[in-house]
Amino acid sequence: MTRRIIFNAFDMTCVTHQAPGLWRHPANQAHRYNELDYWVDLARLLERGTFDAIFIADVVGVYDVYRGSAAPALGDAAQIPLGDPVAQISAMAQATEHLGFGVTVALTYELPYALARRFSTLDHFTKGRIGWNVVTSYLDSAARNLGLDQQIAHDDRYEIAEEFLDVTYKLWEGSWEDGAVVRDRERGVFTDASRVHPIEHRGQHFSVPGIHLAEPSPQRTPTIFQAGASPRGREFAAKHGEAIFINGLRPEITRRITDDIRDRAERIGRPRDSVKILTLATVIVAPTDEEAQAKYAEYREYVSLEGALALYGGWSGLDLSQFDPDVPLKYVDTDAARSALSIFTLADPEREWTPRDIAHYVGIGGIGPVIVGSPETVADELERWVEVGGVDGFNLAYVVTPGTFEDFVDLAVPELRRRGRIWEQYPEGTLRGRLRGDGSPVVPEWHPAHAYRGAYAGAPSALDGIRPSVLAESADAAPTSSLKEIAS
Ligand SMILES: Cc1cc2nc3c(=O)[nH]c(=O)nc-3n(C[C@H](O)[C@H](O)[C@H](O)COP(=O)(O)O)c2cc1C
Description:
Layout: E1 6-12, H1 36-48, E2 53-57, H2 71-76, H3 89-95, E3 100-106, H4 112-125, E4 130-135, H5 140-145, H6 154-175, E5 181-184, E6 189-191, E7 201-202, E8 207-208, E9 223-226, H7 231-240, E10 243-246, H8 251-267, E11 276-285, H9 289-300, H10 305-316, H11 338-345, H12 355-362, E12 370-373, H13 375-389, E13 393-397, H14 403-418, H15 431-436, H16 478-487
Parallel strand pairs: 1-2, 1-13, 2-3, 3-4, 4-9, 9-10, 10-11, 11-12, 11-13
Antiparallel strand pairs: 5-6, 7-8
Helix pairs in contact: 1-3, 4-6, 7-8, 8-13, 10-12, 13-14
The chain binds flavin mononucleotide.
């Protein structure tokens, strides 16, 4: 049976995401990222193309590694100026019925108690269409502006992330039992306190003794996306990620990464096919191959190599201005995104990359392939990535927006639908239910969050230790007495 392919649009609340310099192109509307209308129109367009989701990247720092300054990034609008990644989601959710929303939040600079509430709220407002791309950040500039002297060491960030997720899972899955919200108007009880439980988390990095602030949302735990690609990152992704976002340059090489992630998942008891792997790609499609190639050539004239190196400096943690532009790079461990370097140095034994090569490659599409051609050519190549690379789908970046997405929806989607690779219509349900294909809104059994589902039933609740009401014998005390009745 032909398997469907997952498609997300990859975007960011900024002008230049993965195609530095292209903001100058006359067709590019990316500078409108500060207008809600821009996001709402994009969401409607993506829903017309039955995209699974819009996947919103984010960082909380500036790309100041290249040439030791933020100036190259500022000049090229390379992911700066940059807005908050979640603010537009409610508006997009209101304008659509099915489109999912994957939003990147680096937990390194958050607190689990507050973040859990933010995602519960988003899950309510989107009716179960929210996903969290759990990342640990890679920018030293973020750390310096958020109270640290420097970035926490690479693998230590993942240790903190393990505990962070544990706390949020307890809040989302365990704190409020199903049915805790009774909304009993007659007895004057909104929530049955006996079914709301303090999570009593006291760990190495976080202390959260209390109850979750939000009531259970359609998915409870948002659909968990992950994008860690180093060995430690893949281990983390294989444990928590329902969809895992990777970079890959060629399908043949990417196969090793996708097999490795699935092997890791299997080793910890997770079904191999429960791992949905998405790779970054940029598609330039036109009615014919020649027209698509001409469009690509025209786009290339706008590429800023300085902007590309500014972005790459942030991702990799390496200032390529300090290297000979024509000498192949060698791998070194950094505290940034290690995969951004290993992909050009270790992944492909048949190819060496110089800083100049990398600047040209990253100039359109970031660290991902650019697929150019007619609808048939593009669909063939996307299918090759699925068959040979072992991926389940794509996060599609744009060159110009919304133009790149419009071309995809109008030209590539009909061909992919003809091949049974994209839905004709959305199935009903939540983001998780659609992604898994079984319609279930809640975390599956293999997922670490599942262990907390209903786990606190019978444990101490918010009602324990309650002192008598000062109004004990008066009619005003009714709500509290009703609480006790309900509990008994
Ligand atoms: C394809 C891909 C996309 C990513 N997108 C983001 C992002 O938007 N924001 C972010 O802070 N980190 C992002 N990351 C970074 C990682 O999630 C991770 O926190 C960082 O790279 C260090 O881990 P690693 O060396 O295991 O990749 C991305 C990584 C990959 C591979």
